[in-house]
Design a protein that fits this description.
Layout lengths: L1 H11 L4 E13 L10 E10 L3 H6 L8 H13 L2 E2 L2 H13 L7 E8 L10 E8 L8 H5 L3 E13 L10 E10 L3 H5 L1 H14 L1 E2 L2 H14 L5 E8 L9 E8 H11 L9 E9 L4 H15 L1 E5 L2 E4 L10 E10 L3 H14 L14 E7 L5 E2 L4 E2 L8 H10 L12 H6 L6 E4 L13 E7 L16 H11 L1 E7 L12 H17 L5 E5 L3 H10 L3 E4 L9 H8 L3 E4 L18 H18 L7 E4 L8 H9 L1 H5 L8 E4 L5 H7 L10 H14 L3 E4 L2 H19 L1
Parallel strand pairs: 1-3, 6-8, 19-20, 19-26, 20-21, 21-22, 22-23, 23-24, 24-25, 25-26
Antiparallel strand pairs: 1-2, 2-4, 4-5, 5-6, 6-7, 7-9, 9-10, 11-14, 11-15, 12-14, 13-14, 13-18, 16-17
Protein name: Folic acid synthesis protein FOL1
GO molecular function: 2-amino-4-hydroxy-6-hydroxymethyldihydropteridine diphosphokinase activity; ATP binding; dihydroneopterin aldolase activity; dihydropteroate synthase activity; kinase activity; metal ion binding
InterPro entries: DHP_synth-like (IPR045031), DHP_synth_dom (IPR006390), Dihydropteroate_synth-like_sf (IPR011005), FolB_dom (IPR006157), GTP-CH-I_C/QueF (IPR043133), Hppk (IPR000550), Hppk_sf (IPR035907), Pterin-binding_dom (IPR000489)
């Protein structure tokens, strides 16, 4: 007898189903897509457990659930009522199926409102299992299969992709989300949850689908308070010969809690790390605000390098002023999140108030990358910066100080991303030019030597005549006036710093007293003279020894925050012609020695935006070396380590100009035509400043060469 009972139990232990697939009804279930309590289509997929052994064996419909009758009963019952949510509808369908007309003890269903979510063609579904109440308690199936809400085909425009061309504009991402339903409120407000997902994805920007789906899963567990969620994202445009690429993940609230606990460092990491911080401003005194931010950064950590600055057209919110941007390289033992806290505290100290995302700001500091490739992803911070690779205003200054960096997520060199960026709105900012005079064109520096023994104009410029000479130069087009009180011609007698200052300082004061506001550079290699000159009104230091004659010249320029021109030279000025022997190529030697000068300046705290380089025509080079250097000036300028630095070329009236132009006399003033050719070559090779004696004539030469250069750049 026991054997027969056991066999019968085995025969009944099956999972046969009677299925009503996609029964369409019209009823009110919560709100429609416009948040109205209106009748709407509902599709019901109902699967009722029923052992069909007898009906199948005897081929008798009386021994099974009649799906025709069941569908009519369900349709009539559902359409006769209204429901506050899909959960209420599921309860009602379960109760209706348990009545004797149908008599289903176990019902599995998926109820869909196809028109309830504006951004989805499939709408929202509710998956549930209901069992007959006559059992007195929930069945094991219902306990192990809690109700789930399913959002299908949620269409969201988003910036996503590794390649720059993928990030040029938003593309369609298709989201599928399902989660365990903990409360009736979650079902009632599922349309709001869909809207939350859509708005969040639209405002983010990820390189990978993996990052996107994990971010949405975390959002739902943390913000919407779901216990378990599955998120799938499809990129239909990713693969040309496939419908889509997709990533699907399942996560729980417990998983994210454990992840957070494990990621919390138990021991403070005090290892020094290199981090790149971008800075920007487009409100008020942009340059001054950035300098103030950098000063505060220096007080809290080691600033190793600061890039040139760039004026950049705004990208995302375009109706706002032009930005000033750059990047600095810092060393700190602070964790990334603490470094972020410091940056944000500096922003607050300087008065930043965020009113519009990506809108105007007096100062902006962003952590863009860690040199060791460490990845950081949390609610407050993503490293590398999620938008870094599409922003020319970040990549261009970053590559100036770290030309070999590779994106740690993609393995792609950053220089490749910059090639795909639009740089039309990015222009180098030159602090040696007044704000309204910023230009990409080469500018003229007029020479005003207040010395009795300069090689071509000694004694011509006196304190009595300098104001008129300066005004004439400015009127003819000079943007910078270079005042020198120490001759650097071969064999010139060196004068004490006090005597040099007595020549230079009154001249600077006279120009400023006369209302001349043009940029003034002081041509000196004495830090004592330079300090007095800046105090008297000069703006730039022009040092023909690149800071080597005065040990504190570079630190002085750093402390004063003024541009300094570093010229290539060898030995002291009096004996420079005894150092004209170069091992191999003169261009290579000058490149290497200028690189050393740049590094000394950076180590002294001078930012790259305040560094001007000069190849040093006529200094410790013979005629052949000078012409070789001039002909390869562009190669020198394009050295990766010199990227976007300003360059000054000063071949005016030099001896080698006479040699190669056929002017054999010893009168430097007769070298005007050769100087014109040398200046033209300098401009076309990429010089930013040309230092000349004959401003009137050279202004015409520079104007024409600038026009050619501009045409070539297009």
């Amino acid at each position: 007898m026991a054997k027969n009972i056991s066999q019968k139990q085995t025969l009944d232990d099956v999972d046969d189903r009677i299925i009503i697939k996609n029964l369409r009804v019209t009823t009110t279930v919560g709100l429609d897509q416009w948040r109205r309590e209106q009748p709407q289509p509902v599709v019901m997929h109902v699967s009722m457990r029923n052992n069909v052994r007898i009906a199948g064996t005897e081929d008798d419909l009386n021994s099974t659930i009649h799906y025709g009758i069941a569908s009519k009963i369900l349709k009539a019952a559902v359409e006769a009522r209204t429901f506050g949510s899909l959960r209420e509808l599921a309860d009602f369908v379960g109760d209706t199926c348990s009545h004797k007309e149908i008599d289903a003890r176990f019902v599995e269903m998926e109820l869909t409102k196809p028109k309830s979510v504006l951004r989805s063609d499939a709408g929202v579904s509710y998956k549930a299992i209901r069992t007959s109440k006559s059992t007195g308690s929930l069945s094991s199936e219902q306990e192990h299969h809690p109700d789930r809400v399913v959002l299908r085909e949620l269409q969201v425009p988003a910036i996503i992709g590794v390649h720059p061309f993928e990030r040029a504009e938003k593309q369609r991402v298709v989201m599928h989300v399902s989660f365990e339903c903990n409360s009736n409120d979650q079902v009632r407000h599922v349309e709001n949850i869909a809207r939350t997902i859509s708005e969040h994805v639209e405002q983010t920007s990820f390189l990978t689908i993996e990052a996107l789906v994990l971010d949405v899963a975390r959002l739902l567990c943390d913000k919407v308070d779901v216990d378990n969620v599955r998120v799938t994202a499809e990129k239909p445009s990713a693969i040309t010969f496939a419908d889509a690429s997709a990533v699907s993940v399942e996560r729980s609230k417990a998983y994210f809690a454990l992840e957070k606990a494990l990621s919390t460092p138990q021991v403070v990491d005090t290892t020094d790390r290199i981090c790149y911080v971008s800075f920007g401003s487009n409100v008020g005194d942009r340059f001054g605000m950035i300098q103030a931010a950098l000063k505060r950064l220096r007080s809290k950590m080691t600033v190793l390098d600061v890039s040139p600055m760039f004026e950049t057209r705004p990208m995302y919110v375009t109706d706002q002023p032009v930005f000033l941007n750059g990047v600095c390289k810092v060393k700190t033992n602070l964790p990334p999140i603490e470094l972020l806290n410091i940056c944000q505290s500096i922003e607050n100290e300087l008065g930043r108030v965020k009113l519009v995302d990506k809108g105007p700001r007096c100062i902006d500091l962003d952590l863009v990358m860690l040199e060791d490739g460490t990845l950081v992803d949390n609610e407050r911070l993503h490293i590398p910066h999620l938008l870094m690779h599409e922003r020319a205003f970040v990549l261009r200054p970053l590559l100036c100080i770290a030309p070999d960096l590779v994106h740690p997520r993609t393995g792609v060199p950053l220089v490749h991303y910059l090639k795909d960026c639009d740089e039309t709105g990015v222009h180098a900012y030159r602090p040696y030019l007044k704000g309204s005079e910023q230009t990409d064109a080469c500018v003229i520096m007029g020479i005003l030597n207040v010395t009795p023994d300069s090689f071509s104009d000694g004694g011509e410029c006196t304190l009595d005549s300098i104001v008129e000479k300066a005004k004439a130069m400015v009127e003819k087009g000079a943007r910078i006036l270079d005042i020198g009180g120490q001759s650097t011609r071969p064999g010139a007698q060196l004068v004490p710093a006090e005597a040099e200052a007595n020549r230079v300082i009154p001249a600077i004061q006279a120009l400023r007293s006369a209302g001349i506001t043009t940029t003034i550079s002081v041509d000196t290699y004495s830090s004592q003279v330079a300090k007095q000159a800046i105090s008297a009104g000069a703006d730039v230091i022009n040092d023909v020894t690149a800071g080597q004659a005065s040990p504190d010249m570079l630190s002085l320029a750093a402390d004063l925050g003024v541009p300094i021109c570093l010229m290539h030279n060898r030995g002291n000025v009096a004996r420079m012609h005894s150092h004209e022997t170069y091992d191999g190529n003169v261009v290579t030697s000058v490149r290497e020695e200028l690189a050393q000068a740049v590094q000394r300046a950076i180590d002294a705290g001078i930012p790259r935006y305040n560094i001007i380089l000069d190849p040093g025509f006529g200094f410790s080079k013979d005629a052949k070396q000078n012409i070789e250097l001039l002909s390869h000036l562009q190669d020198l300028i394009r050295t990766p380590g010199f990227r976007d630095l300003a360059w000054l070329s000063a071949p005016s009236r030099k001896r080698f100009v006479g040699v190669y132009s056929g002017e054999t006399s010893n009168d430097p003033k007769r070298r005007t035509w050769g100087t014109a050719a040398a200046i033209t070559t300098s401009v076309l090779q990429g010089a930013n400043i040309v230092r000349v004696h004959d401003v009137d004539e050279m202004a015409q030469v520079v104007a024409f060469a600038n026009a050619v250069q501009k045409s070539n750049s297009h």
